[in-house]
Amino acid sequence: MRRLANFLNVDGIDLKRTLVNVSHCRNCGRALNVYKMRMIGGPRKGSWTTITEPCDCSFSQQALQEADRIKRERFYELSTINDALKQATLKNFSAQNASQIHAVEHAVEFVEKIGENKPARMFYYGKPGLGKSHLAVGISKLLDQKYHKTCLFIDVPALKLIFKSTWTKESTLTERDLMTFIADADLLILDDVGAEGITPWSKELMFAILNARLSKSLLVTTNRSISELDLDYGPKIIDRFLENMSKADLVHLDGDYSYRLARFIEDDEQ
Ligand SMILES: [Zn+2]
What we know:
This protein is α/β, with parallel strands linked by helices. About 45% of the residues lie in helices and about 20% in strands. It comes from Sporolactobacillus inulinus CASD.
């Protein structure tokens, strides 16, 4: 009530008021008093006006939306998207061949599935320079903008550095926090899998990450073939990568066209 009084004072309205009606909040349906009051200042001084008391739910909804926005921003800040890819969207992806058109179609289906709160998993694989990372960033942007989903994009070759940075005293993030973000994201994107210099430590970390994502949405991009990844990681990890996936979720990009060369801003893969 204090807030209402302040609000009314600012607007130059006489605080003596008469209850004239009851209306209902459009958001939550709560009954809200409607008062008739006389203006004591401003151009309409002396005239009568009706005021509906504000509903608290609009404040809490705004707070929820704001908290949601901050959360998505936090995931974006933690993502390791290089500068060349920051402008990438599905709209500005230029598909040059059938496999790239096919890949964009899959991207749209993938986004819609997650938008409907169904877990979706997909691999983009094929030679470097065909725009796999561009598509992955585009997917994360569309999910953020259209469905307000949180996406975590991890440049896998930088994974070691990302985790090592949590070991320093200055880090505000612990390794466990990072794993929580990895587990909680609506979508985890592992970009350039297989290019990280695979060691027993990195394998163990990958296994932990994939375990944290069981039955959750996952997007992988890789320059390696699935059988090469099988050799790199071994059956235990490959099994986790391919969990809940069908052949249709393995999307191959191919062609001689170099996406990076053509656009020249692309630096997504080595
Ligand atoms: Zn309300």
